[in-house]
């Protein structure tokens, strides 16, 4: 069953739940990717730009698809990659792809929440080691 994000911009926690469900749905429905590998670089570049850099992008991917620890885009499944594309909404103009500007703010909000949680977790681990 396909679930859509109807109210945009959406809260980061809602986006995370939706994107995980979307990846599962695509896998269960046997989604066959078409030209996704070409979009991997576009996604990486856009997330780097909107999240603040490579490490921040990896934290965001880990927050969206894993346990919050940094995650490389190289290990994204085709379903996770397609779920990211479905969330961000790309537009092709001639030979270039652009993120719909309405969703750029969502990427920044997700990055902020993911990075805050990662830093909080990192601080808690550091405090534990100190005592």
Provide the fold topology.
Elements: H1 12-28, H2 36-51, H3 54-65, H4 78-88, E1 90-93, E2 96-99, H5 101-130
Antiparallel strand pairs: 1-2
Outline the structure in words.
The termini are far apart. Helix 2 crosses helix 3 (54-65), helix 2 crosses helix 4 and helix 3 packs across helix 5 (101-130). The chain has 131 residues and is mostly helical. Strand 1 (90-93) and strand 2 (96-99) form a beta hairpin. A two-stranded antiparallel sheet has the order 1-2. The chain has one domain (12-130). The protein has five helices and two strands, in the order ααααββα. The radius of gyration is 15 Å and the shape is globular.
What characteristics describe this protein?
two-stranded antiparallel sheet, 131 residues, 2 strands, mainly alpha
Structural class based on helices, strands and sheet pairing: mainly alpha
Task: Note the gap between the termini.
Answer: 48 Å
Rg (C-alpha, Å): 15 Å
Largest beta-sheet characterization: 2 strands, antiparallel
Contiguous low-pLDDT stretches (5 residues minimum) are none
Compressed to H and E, one letter per element, the order equals HHHHEEH
What is the molecular shape?
Answer: globular
Strand order of the largest sheet: 1-2
| Tally of discrete structural domains | 1
Q: Could you tell me the number of beta strands?
A: 2
Strand content: 5-15%
The tally of helices reads 5
Q: Mean pLDDT across all residues, rounded?
A: 86
Question: Helical residue percent?
Answer: 55-70%
